[in-house]
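Researcher: Structure for this, please.
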Amino acid sequence: MAKGRIRFLNDDEKERIHGTSVRILEEIGVRILSDSVCDMLVQEGCGKSEKGGRILMPESVIESAVQSAPKTVRLSGRGEIEDIVIPSGRIYSANGGEGVYIKNLLTGEQRPSTLDDIRDFMIMANEFPQIDFCWGMVGALDQPAHIKELIELKVGFQYTEKHVQGGSLEPQQAEEMIELASILTGSKEDLRKSPIFSAIECPISPLTFEKGLAESQVVFSRHGIPVVSMSASLAGLTSPVTIAGTLTQVNAENLASLVISQIASRNSPWIYSSDSVPADFKSGSIDYGAFESHLLRTGAAEMGAYYGFPTMTAGLGIEETSLLLGTIQDGLPYMMIQTLVPTDLGSGFGGLNQAAGASFEQFVVDVWIWDVAREFARDFESDDEAISFETIRDASRDGTFINKPHTISRFKKEFLATTQSDAKFSGRKVMEHRGNLLKRASEEVEAILKNDKKMVVSKDDARAMDTLMKRSLESNH
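Model: Predicted structure, token format:
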């Protein structure tokens, strides 16, 4: 099969990044702000720096972790939702996550995000087949901070049967998340076999693992919950200013995360990940829109594939650019490059302002554009039947291909614009005023959310979840 993908690193460059990453971990090491995790690593062959502030990881320990980790990971759904098994050769998509405000792009109204917003986004994610797995779109700022992640996961489970990605800041909360998910799977062992959620546990650039995140990662790994090691470097601020330097640091952070997971539990599921992009040197903030961000995402995906790991490096969505659009076709050039990143998972639909906020209308616009744009990266047959020597021979005699069975049977599949009018960059199109696409999206949001907001779990499971939440609230108060 032929497939459109960006290629960035050659084999020598991958080897150089790997070799330097190993040197970083052996000679510089990583800061791990958890005594228990440090002790675990030292017992299994890691060392400490002279002043004891950094963990040094020998090449033998790194190679053992690479060999130990499974090269296929299952992200389970529930009910009739199919499991996601990666790598698979396609990008599975999700909405964005953890913004702190909701904005109506038509009126400009903005407010802090709430638990009800998470519920409504989960309902919408469950509604659109283009969404393969779900993030908590925004933070539940109206909930107690110490149980925020747990209650966000609960609401995710209650309103979608798709796989949910979350994360924990404390090991006790990680244990409670596992208990929460086990209500739906029946037992912790069944959860291990069919993990209905996965955990994003980020290294902190440069080369640091925060105490609660590292200890949570150990808990998740020991229970068979897939860990997504999302390194989020800002090139020039928290990593080298060069793409090659940032990719090397990202790779070192991922390898260190891998070692933590595999020493915690051999063969535990783990996903190579990066959300690293250039810094905006004018503001000191993140710059998802930078041209080079797609090269960083591609390079990270290629490094994950170098080891044989499933990867999550794609950033999806066009943010406030939707304000300029009249049609889906107008948005295709912005999103089509995102489809060419050679990764397994991506997220971002619905996000605004470098993922600081979210919009219901933006969510729908992103999904609509993705539905067409993703076909740009579909498989194209390239075998003898697709080439069809015989058709070329016959057409050379009568001068036309249009009446040949090969053409008639394949033209709709080969060229999307024959069946989807939006699937083209230019040419004939219906002119629409800027903002019309958002207006249509707003109507779609209203139509979906006006319906009864029914849970997708049984009453018994909902009660069991509420009981667990009450216990957690009391024990952490």
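Researcher: Any notable elements?
Model: Residues 243-264 form the longest helix (22 residues). Residues 66-378+461-470 form a domain with the TIM Barrel fold (CATH 3.20.20.480).
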